[in-house]
Design a protein that fits this description.
The chain has one domain. The chain contains five helices and no strands. α2 runs antiparallel to α5. It is mostly helical.
Length: 176
């Protein structure tokens, strides 16, 4: 039915396919290899992010734990701390969704802290509101990082800020 030309054409196409698309016939093992590489990358990025978040937490803990409106001197000190924390997240290497969400969440929380500092001199209630929003955003990022740590085999990672008891704030392991 194919004749000798059809068989020859099929053979040539098969050989070309094997040469042009290496791994075509063993694609499941290549997929597994890529998944392992991505998982290893994410574990490394998660470890790095834990260290960055711990350092940034140290930077901003005084600011988020304050119970009164800041003095002008405190605003200067807090601005320095927030700038240090923001610098830690200046680079954003791309990883898996879990790591990217956590990193973006921490960077967003720090950005909110920075905005709160700009708002305090104009409106202390607005500055306080933004500071509280930043604490809530940080808690969500900390829970996301905890999930990435568990998924990556690192166990629970804890980079939570001191609990403020705010609506929407999450404590360790996602419990409000």
């Amino acid at each position: 039915m194919w004749g000798s030309g059809g068989v020859l054409l099929g053979l040539v196409l098969g050989v070309l396919g094997a040469l042009v698309v290496p791994g075509w016939f063993d694609s499941p093992s290549r997929v597994e290899e890529l998944e392992q590489q991505y998982a290893a990358r994410d574990v490394s990025l998660t470890r790095d992010l834990v260290a960055l978040a711990e350092q940034a937490r140290t930077d901003v803990t005084e600011m988020v734990s304050a119970t009164a409106a800041p003095t002008p001197e405190q605003l200067v000190s807090w601005k320095s701390a927030v700038d240090r924390a923001a610098a830690r997240f200046a680079e954003r290497p791309s990883g898996g969704t879990e790591v990217n969400l956590a990193r973006s969440g921490f960077a967003g929380a720090i950005s909110l802290l920075d905005r709160s500092l700009a708002a305090y001199p104009v409106s202390a209630p607005l500055g306080e509101s933004l500071r509280k929003d930043a604490v809530v955003a940080w808690s969500v990022a900390a829970n996301q990082l905890d999930l990435a740590g568990i998924k990556g085999g690192l166990g629970h990672v804890h980079v939570f800020l001191p609990t403020q008891g705010l609506p929407g704030e999450m404590e360790e392991h996602g419990h409000p």
